[in-house]
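Q: I have 442 residues here and want to know how they pack in 3D. Can you give me a structure?
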Amino acid sequence: MKGKDIPAVSWLKFMGKANLILKNPLPFHAENFEKLGDIFRVQTGFGNPLVFSRNAEFAEYALQKNHRNFEKSPIQTRDMAKYLGYGLLTATGEHWRKQRKLIQPAFHKKQIAGLLYTVNSAILIELDRIKPNKTIDVFPVFNDLAFQTVVKSLFSSAVGQKEINRLQYITEAAQRMLVRELRQPFKRWWFKYGGSIKKHMDLVEEAREILRKLVRERKENLVGAGDLLDMLLEARYEDGTAMSEKQLIDEILIFFTAGHETTSNALTFTAELLARHPEIQEKIVSETKDAKAKTGDLMELIAYCTYTKQVLEEAMRLYPPVYFIDRINLEKDEFNGFRIHKNSNLLFSIYEIHRDANYWKNPQKFDPSRFAEGAKHTSHYYPFGAGPRKCIGNNFAMYEMILAISELVSRYKISTNKLEIEITPLITLKPKNAILRFEERS
């Protein structure tokens, strides 16, 4: 095989920084990108090494141009699937293609339009929780908001707050356990035999039982609710059969995780950036006022809020909720002269790509205008992934976030005394200590 070896970080160096990597791997990534270039590898155990890249062209090659040779890595198809089952996020191969084709129509713009009033109602209820003229950590508000919108979109009013709270707790607990497993692979035997994994698997089974009850109640009720659950129950494969109950619950667990977590993160980071840019808040207020004067239709309102959309896109550039994308190559490959051995574990750092001066002018600056009409960033902008496996719910998420931010900023002036925006990189890029002040607008 032609080409040269990818620069390596020694196992000893990795182990020496293991505790720091557990808390936040981004400084470790940045340090080695600066020393070794846009691609490096780390031997973390006895298996294939991890290959890290911040090269946007390599990401485009793997996700789009040669995507057939690059499948999801065991991080999702094995480790994450252990907790979430085999749904769109974790499935691979023919199973993924079959599920994608089945579920895609449920996320068509026309179908989402029918859910917008349910989504907006959940948003308004959660924003009412913000007490004006007080300083709060806003992440719990957005976390609850995003989870409520997913639950209400799936189940309408068929699920109680007690069940919602429990499902939310289990979803977040399972993710924290998964992060510990991924970042401390040398402790996996301890997690297994010490009981931590079993404890969290038991929690996941509790969540599955809650969902089984909701699904069976819906099947027994002959009156449809017009929500996502109805769409999923009515969906049929090419042979005319419906999803099995187990597969349906796998997909719902995926929606909970992928649908609420990334949205709550993006909304929080957007609010934090807006708190530091009052002039951008005023532009959103003006745009929202004009849009509401033109229409009462939510889909049309969203279409009018073009600047608000740019603000969200720029916030997700600086703080991408999905801050890395993983792949494994099925056959040996080569890129930019480097040998990519078969079954290499590849991690593309979206966080680094989105802040690379090779792709962005003044990359550290919060500048929504870079996403103005006509600006093209598709080859180095991946907030929802890219290629055939691009997030199926990207439109749903954007509509929800536009409604939430336009309403939030119309109600409140947002400010903060903090200089830095803090982060907690887990499976997704989460905010930390998002302490903001909200003052009612007159």
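Q: Anything worth noting?
A: The two ends are 68 Å apart (CA to CA). Residues 245-275 form the longest helix (31 residues).
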